[in-house]
Design a protein that fits this description.
CATH topology: Rossmann fold
Shape: globular
Structural class: alpha/beta
Radius of gyration: 15 Å
Strand content: 15-25%
Strand order of the largest sheet: 1-2-3
Order of helices and strands: HEHEHEH
Largest sheet: 3 strands, parallel
CATH architecture: 3-Layer(aba) Sandwich
Helix content: 40-55%
CATH superfamily: Isochorismatase-like
Number of domains: 1
Length: about 120
């Protein structure tokens, strides 16, 4: 389905990798399965992960649930996710994340929290 270096697996121009970025190839639905992602995040001291991406009810959800099982705090940024699945699939995903695996938020709340944190640091 998605093959490395193919058009379908390409990163959009707006998210072009910068030299300081860490890139992790994933081979399964979850970004944690059979990748070094967990060890990279632990070495960085990461405690909380914000989730965004394509296939809300598939790749995003399963990466989020794996992160939850590994002990990370998980926030799904709802308006930064999308899928081609029917709406009820997204509704079920959001319900399950809220009830069992983490929190659901919006990008405006994330941006506001970051801006507030920056103001407090000044």
């Amino acid at each position: 389905m998605l093959q490395k270096d193919s058009w379908a697996a390409a990163v959009v121009d707006e998210l072009k990798q910068e030299p300081e970025d860490i890139h992790v190839d994933k081979y399964r639905i979850s970004g944690f399965w059979d990748t070094p992602l967990d060890s990279i995040l632990r070495n960085l001291g990461t405690k909380t992960i914000l989730f965004a991406g394509v296939n809300t009810d598939q790749c995003v959800l399963h990466s989020l649930t794996d992160a939850n099982f590994l002990g990370y705090g998980c926030l799904l940024v709802e308006d930064c996710c999308a899928t081609t699945s029917p709406g009820f699939c997204v509704e079920a995903t959001l319900f399950n994340v809220k009830k069992c695996f983490g929190f659901v938020t919006h990008s405006s709340d994330v941006i506001g929290a970051v801006q507030e944190h920056i103001q407090q640091q000044r």
